Predict the structure.
Amino acid sequence: MQNQQAPILFDQKTASSYDKQTALWKTGREALFSFMRLILSELPADARILCVGAGTGTEMIALAQAFPQWQFTAVEPASAMLDVCRRKADESGIISRCTFHEGYLDSLPASEAFDAATYLLVSQFLTLFYYSHESIINY
Ligand SMILES: C[S@@+](CC[C@H](N)C(=O)[O-])C[C@H]1O[C@@H](n2cnc3c(N)ncnc32)[C@H](O)[C@@H]1O
């Protein structure tokens, strides 16, 4: 189960301005992507990557450009964000290597195992239910 706020928060208006807004963090993002490329470079040449909360596809496209045979599955509950992601993947020439799933991870159809998953700037949107001091369950 998950909360259903993402499609409301990341509506058409937010999706269309998201990349412009986050361009302010360009330097930080580039550093993060460099680090990811370094860590993930040990994966097979034909790795399968799961991008959870793919948003407008920024990390997926950065990785796809660095690793030209990798395949990507973008999971994104907000349709407006996924539309931008799909369009950018097309414009970047990587769309044939991408599968797009509108929804949450629990509705993603079963497939071959992934070699790695990304989950950037997403966990702050998870709702935490505290059952006790020792036990936290993420929805
Ligand atoms: C701040 S954006 C980050 C997008 C992208 N990863 C990036 O770094 O630009 C957060 C994204 O996570 C999605 N999201 C929110 N809750 C989610 C959940 N429980 N599972 C998957 N995606 C979620 C939102 O719809 C939104 O597109």
Q: What stands out?
A: Strands lie at 48-52, 71-76, 98-102, 116-118, 128-130, 136-138.
